[in-house]
Amino acid sequence: MRIAMVSVMANPLTEGTGQGAHVQQMAAALCRLGHEVTVYTRRTTPKSHDRVRTDEKFEVVQVPAGPAEPLSGDELVAHLGEFAEFLAEEWRLSSPDVVHSHHWQSGLVALISAHRVQVPVVHSHHGLGVADDEKRADAERLLARMASWTVTTCTQEIAQLMQLGVRRTQASVVPAGVDLDLFKPEGPAAARGSLRRVVTVGRLEPGSGFATVVAALSVVDDVELVIVGDKAQANPVAAQLRKLARTLGSLDRVVFAGVVPQVKMPALLRSADVVVCMPRSEPFGLAALEAMACGVPVIATAVGALTDVITHNVSGLHVPPNDARALARLLRLLLADDTKRQELGVAARDRVAARYSRERLANEAVAVYERVDPVHGNE
Known about the structure:
By secondary structure, the chain is α/β, with parallel strands linked by helices. Helix content is about 40%, strand content about 15%. InterPro entries: Glyco_trans_1 (IPR001296), Glyco_trans_4-like_N (IPR028098), Glycosyltransferase_grp1 (IPR050194).
């Protein structure tokens, strides 16, 4: 099957977390099943190649739509027409069997372009907009009505989508997947000092929950916090976190690791006593899944995909968002109990292996594609 993925804002070549990582994982797994996958994203640097064939065999096309520089979501809207024209021309010459769009901007250009060549569109919202964002709300309602099928990465989003008009019989949950050959308990661990280690992973942006983790760390003794995400230099959120840690007297125990390549993430995760994920919303849960696959216990907020991924007190622990006191209490209990950490780590690995392998989830995605593609669905 020839599959086109549209991910306008999240480039699987450069974004190691969130949507970009999810698209990369799904495209790689689909290629391993023998499918042909092309990912379309927007060019954001002038020196980037037009087309890149990855080691995982999928192709990334970096579409010239607007200036070759990062743009905000509002700035990007003016250039979605250029993106759609590029796709329409490309697909007129050689059309895919199915299009899978990720996030609302991608969904709009996919609907426009795929309609011209009569190709079905599967759409993933990856979180819904706030009520006062009228452009996004209108787009999401349109996508709910017009997409051939809707795929979500967590069950919590299904109820919201039904309120938009998505029929439950035309929606599926296909969560994010993990490369279990790479993320596993066996293998080297990154070097560390005498302090116990807590690791948290995500983008340095409001809503990440990093401030809650820093606040909790300040009242938990003999623990260092390693923050993995974007480059911390000149990042305003990183500056705020440093100021908070300095005020709380824990700056010397906070490490900004920056961007860690995927091949080095397992070793870093294995070096952690606990991994903490404290976002206010989370459609993917990739950071938690990768830590769990490495057999590391996870404390996470009960939001989005994290409610599916973790069964409280079985494969991890849940904590309310923004509650530094509750997080500190759980960290103290867990760091003092080697047996409990081991039990949670083993159960976490079993949970991921049973439900979240890339191959299983790629097969579930293909089952959706075959439903909307009459040719391959009848083979």
